[in-house]
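Researcher: Here's the sequence for the chain we discussed earlier.
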Amino acid sequence: MKLSARNQLEGKITNVEKGAVMANVKIEISEPGVITAVITKESAEKLG
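Model: Thanks. This is the structure I predict for it:
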């Protein structure tokens, strides 16, 4: 997994909706407020 300073935001995961293959993850951040990301189900399971 590669991360860089350009794609890192501090936030709190507020909701994870897992589907058969993908998952919607809502992340609360200070600005602009909430980010919703679509990631693989496997990646969502690694979040904990």
